């Protein structure tokens, strides 16, 4: 029945082909048969997978083989050091081995990992659904573009200023939404993101409107001008350093006092307040610290592309960053990195299947959300075990 209904719905698109030049109609009945057969067997496969998921509901909550392997590596100092070396060496040698195109794609991926880790503070740790995160990203990018255009301020000067601007913007957004949560918070943050985009688009005297700002300076290396290839390589190493700094800060924040307050706020806001946690301060800190990384990533984005316009900061960007956090695993640093690699690199490497790549992309997202709702690599909570006078804890992420 599902197959017949789907074949009926897709009939005008897949079967009828009108040639307006010759005035003829081509009937492609084989397409309808193929769709019906594929839907019939696909429906059976989908139902079988759902039934299997229900039977193994308890097993789904357990750690996967990859998660157990990562936990084992992180629990042993020698294995942890060897694992870090195994990641660091290829990461450092990447631009030397691969060409300019591959390096450029990887820089984009690193930017989105930093953005995902920043949003992970707000959504994954504090549980505040933010659909306007791209506004902080845009504020950093436009701050660098405008300061560079009018006063020739360089990249390294603007990087901390972009971070500070993101912090201020995060506090400005945080104040009006202190009493909101859930769907209401999502709608307000979505509106905030759209307001910023519309201001950038219509305040043409300052932002150049839809035409955008071009000829933004790339970062210089001790005053030396770099070629495009050298600049891309340089940008790669800048992003690699920024990523290491982000992972270090987010990991430290996660297990700090404020990190535990964010987790309490996420689990139960009323109980969190009853325990004496300052809800206002906790929420504002989450928005401010999350926006800080978006501001820095925006400065890097403007310096990498040398051109920005409002079309670079649409709701689609916020949706992609949120998808990175949700699919990777909310609150998990490893999960966000895995989510960014899949969501940014997979569409790039599927360009050969240009007609079907977004279809495959959407199918992957649906499969993950249905069969792995906690994300690819779920967050691991620190567990304390009391053993007499000694207290031991599980490894951090």
UniProtKB/TrEMBL annotation:
It is a multi-pass membrane protein. It is found in: Cell membrane. GO terms for cellular component: plasma membrane. GO terms for molecular function: branched-chain amino acid transmembrane transporter activity. The chain crosses the membrane at residues 30-49, 105-126, 157-177, 234-253, 284-307, 319-346, 358-377. Keywords: Cell membrane, Membrane, Transmembrane, Transmembrane helix. Pfam families: BPD_transp_2. InterPro entries: ABC_transp_permease (IPR001851), LivM-like (IPR043428). PANTHER family: HIGH-AFFINITY BRANCHED-CHAIN AMINO ACID TRANSPORT SYSTEM PERMEASE, HIGH-AFFINITY BRANCHED-CHAIN AMINO ACID TRANSPORT SYSTEM PERMEASE PROTEIN LIVM. This is High-affinity branched-chain amino acid ABC transporter permease LivM. It comes from Pseudodesulfovibrio alkaliphilus. The gene is livM.
């Amino acid at each position: 029945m599902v197959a017949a209904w789907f074949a009926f719905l897709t009939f005008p698109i897949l079967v009828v082909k009108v040639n307006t030049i010759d005035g003829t109609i081509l009937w492609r009945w084989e397409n309808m048969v193929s769709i019906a057969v594929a839907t019939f067997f696909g429906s059976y496969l989908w139902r079988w997978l759902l039934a299997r998921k229900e039977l193994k509901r308890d097993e789904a909550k357990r750690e996967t083989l990859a998660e157990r392997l990562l936990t084992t590596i992180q629990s042993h100092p020698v294995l942890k050091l060897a694992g870090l070396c195994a990641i660091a060496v290829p990461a450092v040698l990447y631009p030397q081995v691969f060409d300019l195109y591959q390096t450029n794609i990887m820089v984009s991926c690193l930017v989105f990992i930093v953005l995902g880790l920043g949003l992970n503070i707000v959504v994954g740790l504090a549980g505040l659904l933010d659909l306007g995160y791209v506004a902080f990203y845009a504020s950093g990018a436009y701050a660098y573009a405008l300061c560079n255009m009018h006063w020739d301020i360089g990249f390294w000067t603007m990087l901390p200023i972009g971070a500070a601007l993101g912090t201020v913007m995060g506090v400005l957004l945080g104040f009006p939404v202190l009493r909101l949560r859930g769907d209401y918070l999502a709608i307000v943050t979505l509106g905030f993101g759209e307001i910023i985009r519309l201001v950038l688009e219509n305040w043409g005297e300052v932002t150049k409107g839809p035409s955008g700002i071009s000829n933004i300076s790339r970062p210089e290396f001790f005053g030396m001008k770099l070629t495009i290839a050298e600049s891309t390589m340089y940008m790669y190493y800048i992003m690699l350093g920024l990523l290491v700094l982000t992972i270090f800060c987010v990991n430290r924040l996660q297990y700090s006092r404020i990190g535990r307050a964010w987790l309490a706020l996420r689990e139960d806001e009323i109980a969190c307040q009853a325990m004496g946690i300052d809800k206002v301060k906790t929420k504002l800190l989450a928005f401010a610290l999350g926006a800080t990384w978006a501001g820095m990533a925006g400065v890097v984005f403007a310096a990498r592309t040398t051109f920005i316009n409002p079309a670079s900061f649409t709701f689609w960007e916020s949706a992609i960053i949120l998808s990175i956090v949700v699919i990777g695993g909310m609150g998990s640093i490893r999960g966000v990195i895995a989510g960014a690699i899949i969501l940014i690199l997979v569409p790039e490497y599927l360009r050969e299947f240009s007609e079907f790549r977004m279809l495959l992309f959407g199918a992957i997202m649906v499969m993950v959300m249905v069969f792995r709702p906690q994300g690819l690599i779920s967050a691991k909570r620190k567990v304390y075990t009391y053993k007499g006078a000694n207290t031991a804890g599980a490894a951090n992420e």
